[in-house]
């Protein structure tokens, strides 16, 4: 990505890139559910669902079909918010080939790479908006992007420490020392590969949607196991947590207009034309109106964690760059998330103002050193889209996990049963936590057991 | 600060602001040491200092002079790095007047503000570079800026919850609810006042240095006690820690080109002209050279926490935006810190490239709820410039504090004695921690006892 790219891409005053030569118009991305649900049954959405007009089925993989690490999965479609379930899921084995060595690489280096393949596993959830297309493309594509990015650095991954040069040949005698001083480890290459893969997938989605004249975007939450570590990459408002007997640990953070306020305001500060004079970048407790003019009101700007007062001017009455509170917070009045894939064509209604410059496709990556945990049989990771977390807290989910697993040790499909039970808990006010709200959103859940670590992937 | 300010101030292609009408040339800022050192003695820099040619005195307040909360202080000048001690310190009582009410304010609101003054205390350290002037100006000015900023919001500070309008009058009936939902508390106003005060002080320093044709910048670390809370605001690489019998807690983070890499690279990404074609924003383990051309080397860009490989092009051979490792890391080859006050005129040697757009004058603020701590007699805060932390770890400082205080309960000046002892420990290889390095930098230390909380400020 060349310097000046940002300006060429997003600023109206600068010359636009030459339009892509239009190929034959591509056909729209066909709607589908995850492949591993083929042949699956479904159970009613809640214990008393048969009596309710809005009963929706909870779907999970067919008994007999097992997912990597014997993980469980379940999903439910939203309550008529959209025709399609805008969540998507994918999982599978990740086979990373060693790249072919060119003439430039010496033979000694080859011996550092003893295996022809590195294998890992991959689980991913995508929560779409503005249509199901972006999430479907992400589910079809992101794992390939990741495999490609990992293959491009595989020699660094299998070395004790990533070499300064991918050929393994030092140009300076002190090259290993520089890498050592920066503290660069193999896991930093996996993090870098995940960051690049999200970006590459975002570009693919942009091209494909443009070619098929479709729109939309999606969040992405990905767990990857590789070389004894588990990487959780998140862009959006899905969430992954580790649940153990004595511990609940967050493995991701949400990226919303509220959590990324300062980054978003900062961009509007250095490039005010991105708001086209239609929005104010300042935050106020509520939208201001004429009566507030001349008064001193609470506000904060891009550089502030705290609050202060300012005298209200006319420009402060514009619609706020970030508006609303909690689940209602919106970026430019339009989007509830500030990171994700797609949305290349998304503009504020009736304006030419683009959302994309404020959105990041880059995930935050958390590393869990699974080999260092003293794993117990019922340690699991729960990954779910926001439909689950809107109505259940981390502690409530942990309580449900700990209540369910001990009584279901014999069932080979117990992790999918647990995922279904978690979804059922989002559908009933009298849920097991006793104070439930009901989720009307799409909900998708993976439950990944850590103890077996792949032993279950060949089925039971 | 109007929209577009950033561009007008920093970008060469845009029209420059009209030059300030030159007033009578101001005289240079006179060099001085902190006022509270008047009449102080000094002790040799180390136990064996008399035998060493570089013996430097450790200075602390005269016995009989007490600082707010009976805090201790000591300082030592650097080992001939500069003629002057570039560190500065300030402390004192902070009297915040209630603003006069205008006709717009109703009488009911007055009863919410029962005291004519709010009083607090203030301790500050400034570590200068490029000459002592900026640090002296900051020591002379920042507390006044802070008082002014706090006075501007004092009605909000003394209310149960800051009102939406500074007049206290709701324009919407639901105004209090909006403030409640945002979770805005009185302490957010103090944080906002600290953020604004740093910015205001930075502007004052810029004007004063320009008027007297001087240059330079400084870091700023400030502790403020107010209404039972202690606020620590930091811009730069000084540090404050809380030391208790069973706990060592960081109260600040350092801001250096390394810790703020992504923010700095991001700015160079959206405004490449800030580098004038002379620097590369990419990070490599070492500076690249001709032999690296065409090779794939480790790198990371603004959006990456991890590392990846890229094929080296000619542009990658430019000097890196951030170069060097640890204490040697420099922004644009010039500065070791990425936040602070001043440096308005600072440019990269022999170029027109400004440092200021990459520097932030905004502090990060940590709040310690002192009233909620179960304070013990020897709980203290240690604030010091980087000269101390370069050679002593937090744990070593905590060990020294815990070793010193119990044996010195009777000495009313024990906290200054402790500060002196900490500085002595930076001057001897055989220091009490047994593995000491020697600091050749300026070192300044405040030790603030929390238990007495002002009872000692009238002296013993």
TrEMBL record, chains A, B:
GO CC annotation terms, alphabetical: mitochondrion
GO molecular-function term, one example from the UniProt record: [pyruvate dehydrogenase (acetyl-transferring)]-phosphatase activity
Superkingdom classification of source: Eukaryota
Bias (Low complexity) ranges: 38-48
Biased composition (Pro residues): 14-27
Region (Disordered): 1-63
Pfam families noted in UniProt: PP2C
UniProt feature, compositional bias: Basic residues: 1-10
The PPM-type phosphatase domain, residue ranges: 100-450
UniProt protein name: Protein phosphatase, Mg2+/Mn2+ dependent 1M
